[in-house]
UniProtKB/TrEMBL annotation:
Pfam families: YCII. Transmembrane segments: none annotated. SUPFAM superfamilies: Dimeric alpha+beta barrel. It comes from the Bacteria. Belongs to the YciI family. This is Uncharacterized conserved protein. It comes from Streptacidiphilus jiangxiensis. Gene3D superfamilies: Dimeric alpha+beta barrel.
Length: 109
């Protein structure tokens, strides 16, 4: 089963420090060696929102200041169960501290 785990950021999210980088690197290395981690990355705060309605397409440049929280990063993992994905999210949150992550199962090949 594949899961996309996203980490949300808010106005109160602290800036990363050297300890965070070291702990996260070890976590990523462990998951990569185990064959669990398929992809990971941080996301820029700006983006482009594309909305369709019938034949009309609206494109809006970001960042989107009206958003109370934004996705700061992601990890795509392959695990045996939702419980295993939750445990990875639990470990991730222990490293980065208080905040919110979202897990979504990924379907398809």
């Amino acid at each position: 089963m594949r899961y996309l785990m996203t980490a949300l950021t808010t106005e109160t999210t602290p800036a990363p420090d050297e300890k965070l980088f070291v702990e996260m690197a070890a976590f990523v290395e462990e998951m990569t060696a185990a064959g669990i981690l398929l992809a990971t990355g941080g996301l820029a705060p700006q983006g482009v929102r594309v909305v369709s309605h019938g034949d009309e397409l609206t494109v809006t440049d970001g960042p989107f200041t009206e958003a109370r929280e934004a996705v700061a990063g992601f990890a795509l993992v392959e695990v045996a169960s939702q419980e295993e994905a939750i445990e990875l999210a639990r470990r991730f949150r222990r490293i980065v501290g208080d905040g919110e992550s979202v897990l979504q199962q990924v379907f398809g090949p």
